[in-house]
Every structure is written in C-alpha cells, then in structure tokens.
Amino acid sequence: MDLFEKCTNFTAARDAQQIGLYPYFIPLAESEGTVAEYQGQELIMCGSNNYLGLTTHPEVQEAARDAITRYGTSCTGSRFLNGTLELHERLEIELADWIGKESALVFSTGMQVNLGTISSLVGRNEYVILDRDDHASIVDGARLSYGDLIRYRHNDMDDLENKLSKLDSERGKLIVVDGLYSMEGDIAPLPDIVPLCETYQARLMVDDAHAVGVLGGGRGTAAHFGLTDQVDLIMGTFSKSFASLGGFIVGAEDVIHYIKHHARSLIFSASIPAPNAASALAALKIMIREPERIQRVNEIAARMRREFTALGFDIGNSETPVIPIIIGDDMRTLQTWKMLFDNGVFVNPVLSPATPPGRQLLRTSYMATHTDEQLDQVLDVFEAVGKKLNLI
Q1: CA end-to-end span of the chain, whole Å?
Q2: Which candidate, 32, 57, 66, 225, has a CA 20 to 30 Å from the CA of 243?
Q3: Comparing C-alpha atoms, which of 347, 352, 358, 356 is closest to residue 386?
Q4: 306 Rama class: left (phi>0) / alpha (psi -120 to 50) / beta
Q5: CATH (domain of 69)
Q6: Same-domain check for residues 96 and 208
Q7: Nearest to 329 by CA among 308, 342, 314, 340
Q8: Whose CA is closest to 56, among 346, 331, 286, 272?
C-alpha cells in the first residue's frame, strides 16, 4: 500500500467545499477585533479568543514595534542557547508575581508548554490522569511521556476517585485538567479535585489557556476558587487574553527549573520573538491596570447566556464567555454556521469527532470590546436563523 493513498482517499473536506459548507481556513482580510472582513463582507467576530480585546490596543502594538526596533524580528535560537532575552526573563518574573507562584517559564506556543511540561515530568512507572474533555495538547503531552495514561469522565469526581483508588500508591501521579473548557465554557471543579489530590498524593496541573484574563480577576481558575496555593502548576497562553503568541507555566521554583532543563519542546524550539514577548508584557500591564475589562467580558457573557437560553438555544453548562450553541448533528451545524456567516456573524462549528456525537455545536465567544449594539445584532441574527432552521 502506498503511504499517500490515505491522502487521495480523504475527500470529506473537498466534499464540503463543493457544496459551500466548508468552515475552515477562512482568510480574513482585516480585523479590528470585534469586526473582521472577508471578501468585502464585514463580520461581527464571535469566534476568537481575544477575550479582553487587546490585539489592537495602541500600547500593545507600540510595544511590538519598539521590540522589533531594539531586538529584530527573531531570536534565531532556542531559550537553551542563544534565544533568551532580558525581555523573556522580565515577562517570567511578572507572570509569576501576577499568578501568585514562585517562578515562570515562557515557551514559544501554548501547545509546546503542555507537550514539554507533561512529558518531562511524567516518567516510567508514573501516572498522568486526564479529564476526557482535556485539550488535545494535554493529551499529546501525556502520550509523549513514558507514564501510564488514565482518563476519567468529564468533571465526574466519582469516576476520578474510582480511577485514583485503583492506582499504585507508590507511583507518582499528575492530574491535568483544563480550568475553563474551551468548547463548552464550563469550569473544572477544583474545590472537589484538590482534596482528591491530597488524599491520593497526586500533583495537580491546570491548563488556564482560556481562563487567565477571564476568571479569578484575570488570574485564572485557581484564583477564581481561592486555591492558587493548592494547585501545583498553572499553564497559560499568550494567544488569548494576552493578544500575542506563546505560552507559559508557573509553579514552584525547583519544578520550573527542572522543566527548563528537560522539556524538549522548549530546548529544541526557537524562542518566542521579542515582539510577541513585548506584546504579552504590555497586555499583562493593561490587564492589571484595567480590571474593568475583565468585569466587562464577564458581564457580556452573562447577558449572552441569558439571552440565548431565553430564545430556546441549548448552551450546555457554560459559565464563561465561551458559550456553545449545541445542535447535535454535523450537517445542521454546518448549515447553521453558513447562514450565520452569510448574515454577518462569525462563529466556529465543532463537529464529530472533535465533540461527542450528539453534541455537535457552534462555539461562540465574546470580547470586552463588543458593543451592546453588536451583541443586539448577533442575537437578532441567531433568532432569525434559529427559527428558519427550526432550532428554536
């Protein structure tokens, strides 16, 4: 069999393109945050992770320009060798202080944080325990480790305890959860997970890619529950609220020191370019200085959850600015996405197997900079499309 035969036989995407229902790799011409442009059509953006609306903030843009002037466009090497700048270390110090941990380490992407952190910490004869809805980067990090991978039902504490009770008490254990689940907008029950970690001597890592800047006054899920000291490692990305690109892990100094010297995704990747580091640092300063942005995005989220529910849409268990519209069928989800798109609203369709059968959905997400008028328009379009397709 030819290795490339599978490529020839893969027709699903081309079939969707031919019938005009292909929702991926849409090349946007312009974007000012809440509004994007595609082929001359303006779209209200309800499908990005720009939660605080900082991607076009003048201070963030100026920081990027200044960093290019001072450092150039790339470090051309890994953090391990020639790619560490004073700027990286300043960002790490301020992140650790903001989150409330001893030390931080900046990677080039959020994906690399999870790959490097989990695979470096979990070794042979150790366990990594994941929620079944954890992000793909967490799953891949667990697969790259030499440990045994255990998965429990989403946010099911009885199932988690059942799994933990059967594990060898002499072997190391790392539980990894999303703080804010990126598809359905629900939150990990850390007040229930922390006691289980203590009982079964497991360490806890929380992926706060979508929670930093949104929950806990911006400090994330652990802060939201008042449990920062009880969570061992907190991961975040710069590609959401920080309006940049990259990622970080914070925790105890000796643990971060170990990851720094063992995470292959850090050691063998070029470091985050100076403009990205400077942008993230500028975004952090704004986040601290302007807590009203965090308050605003959560107020918008509460309004949209309330309005969608009143219209008759199923939004699952969302508690955050990530609000799913659960449709439950691949084709109907694509049809709904297309009608919304054609009427000026950009959302993200999530189909099987990315979500379980019966929970195919439209992922909507909101920014602190959305205006009330824009939200009114989004709701009007959703109502019209929902009625036309008999969704409500």
Answers
A1: 49
A2: 225
A3: 347
A4: alpha
A5: 3.40.640.10
A6: yes
A7: 314
A8: 286
Rounded average pLDDT per 10-residue block, the chain, 392 residues: 94 94 95 94 97 97 98 95 97 98 98 98 97 96 97 98 97 98 96 98 98 98 98 98 98 98 97 98 98 98 98 97 96 96 97 89 98 98 97 96
Q: Dihedrals φ, ψ of 252, to 5°?
A: -65, 145
Q: How distant, in Å, are the alpha carbons of 79, 174, 195, 201, 360 from that of 162?
A: 41, 16, 14, 14, 29
* CATH code of the domain containing 379: 3.90.1150.10
Give per-residue pLDDT as tens, 178-204.
Answer: 999 999 999 999 999 999 999 999 999
8 Å CB contact between 114 and 137: yes
Cβ proximity of 301 and 366 under 8 Å: yes
- Look up residue 28 and give its amino acid: L
Q: Residue 43 and residue 338: Cα distance in Å, rounded?
A: 12
Are 315 and 327 in a shared domain? Answer: yes
* Residues 283 and 299 reside in one and the same domain: no
Nearest to 235 by CA among 101, 89, 84: 101
**325 within 8 A of 11, measured Cβ to Cβ:** no
Number of domains forming the structure of the chain: 2
Q: Encoding tokens for residue 284?
A: 């952090």
| CA dist., res. 244 & res. 241, Å (int) | 8
H or E stretch at 163:
helix 157-165
Q: What is the largest CA-CA distance in the chain?
A: 62
Domain identity same for 101 and 178: yes
39 and 88 assigned to the same domain: no
Does residue 384 form part of some domain?
yes
Determine the structural domain holding residue 83 and report its residue range. Answer: 58-289
Nearest CA among 210, 283, 205 for reference residue 244:
283
The set of residues, in sequence order, having a beta carbon less than 8 Å from that of 320 and lying 6+ positions away, is 180, 185, 186, 187, 210, 211, 214, 215, 298, 301
Last-in-domain residue among 289, 316, 351: 289
